[in-house]
Amino acid sequence: MARTQGSHSDITGPRIRKAALRLFAQQGYAAVSMRQIAADVGVQAGALYNYTPDKQSLLYRLMNDHMQHLLSTYAKLERPATALEALRQFVGFHIRFHLERPDEVFIAYMELRNLTPENFGEIEALRRAYEDSLEQILKDGQEVGAFLVADTKMATLAVIAMLNGVMTWYRAGGRLSLDEVEQVYWDMVRRSVTA
Amino acid sequence: MARTQGSHSDITGPRIRKAALRLFAQQGYAAVSMRQIAADVGVQAGALYNYTPDKQSLLYRLMNDHMQHLLSTYAKLERPATALEALRQFVGFHIRFHLERPDEVFIAYMELRNLTPENFGEIEALRRAYEDSLEQILKDGQEVGAFLVADTKMATLAVIAMLNGVMTWYRAGGRLSLDEVEQVYWDMVRRSVTA
DNA sequence: GTCTATACCAAGATAGAC
DNA sequence: GTCTATCTTGGTATAGAC
Question: What is the pLDDT of residue B1?
């Protein structure tokens, strides 16, 4: 665990972010000290400042990395032919991507208020871009009569909120398999936006 | 604002809780200091300890008061005759009760991890009791064929998650009236649990 | 690149005067 | 019941040796 000296430029950075990620998710940004993160990594507190100018930048980096990863992964998916299929794809993607990264997800929406205004603005823009991709699906489906919603913006937020709820209770190995959960949520989402 | 002396037993307590409520909601429990709360009330930090044994108890008190209020208010409602009407009542009650108390709601689910294990257990039990009242509605409706859901527990959590989403974006005086929002969400909830 | 040591400040909580 | 003053601890961040 605790090393005494040496040069580890390539691995210490990722280790710091990994430790910060877990600790922030567990205890919250404000409740975690730089000393705690350093102890977890096995270095002294001062060494952290070779990798981040300050604590705030560490948080921002974690949230930015996560959002970029989310957007780029979704963008790489092959686009289905119909709006209904696109919605199904979105539901499956959203549930799986998020369930695989509980710490990142938790931080991404619990620690928004601990970002500086500038950093907050940037993360918010990324989040909105992701929401927009769902709203576009709903708009497309609405146009061709596949969906029937009173307001695509509200429906977008309602669907995402419903899906995010999975993260608060789902645990692998529990009563329900991931496939079952995905199926149930897909049913509810589909019914909520169709006539 | 800043008073200099005197005896204010009856009003200082509530003022402290009100200040703590707002500050915790805005900045997070861990990021708010007792000195900040005291300054907001207009007393010195030491004076707070005449009203709470410590900071943790202050948080617990706020969350407990909120949950008790939620449960007792819902319990006082007249029970509708049908499951469908009961669900409609729940949706309207949930949205309105929560939108009227954004700070309490925000704290109640953002600061759970800052409770001691004992306090956490108590608050969790109250939250579960509230969820159970919705699940009972879904079970009743499922029995008489009014609803069709794959799993009442999952449907309960999905519906609450969807409704809670309103709190993240709705602002009075915005594009949509409260009645409109309630109507839209009721439509989506109803469709999501019926065939 | 990491260490030890430390500057500097603010936190929660308590003591005793009024 | 509130004040002032203070104890003790731990926070972020930096300096300089290795």
Answer: 41
Asked if A13 and A4 touch (Cβ cutoff 8 Å), the reply is: no
The reply to whether the CB atom of residue A36 sits less than 7 A from any atom in nucleic acid chain D is yes
**CA–C1' gap, B25 and D7, in angstroms:** 30
Which residue, B144, B168, B184, is CA-closest to A165? B168
Rounded CA-CA distance B141/A141 in Å is 30
Chain A residues near any Cβ of chain B (below 8 Å): 26-28, 30-31, 110, 113-114, 149-151, 154-155, 157-162, 164-166, 168-169, 176, 181, 183-185, 187-189, 191-194
Q: How far apart are CA A93 and CA A12, in angstroms?
A: 31
Q: Quote the pLDDT of residue A33.
A: 97
Residue found under tokens 């429906």? A155
CA of A92 to C1' of C5 (A): 53
pTM of the predicted model as reported, rounded to 2 decimal places: 0.94
pLDDT at B34 over 70: yes
Tokens 């940037």 identify what position? Answer: A122
Q: Report the alpha-carbon distance of residue B12 to residue A26 in Å, rounded.
A: 34
From first to last of its 195 residues, chain A has per-residue pLDDT tens of 344 456 676 789 999 999 999 999 999 999 999 999 999 999 999 999 999 999 999 999 999 999 999 999 999 999 999 999 999 999 999 999 999 999 999 999 999 999 999 999 999 999 999 999 999 999 999 999 999 999 999 999 999 999 999 999 999 899 999 999 999 999 999 999 998
Asked whether strand D has any atom less than 7 Å from the CB of A32, the reply is yes
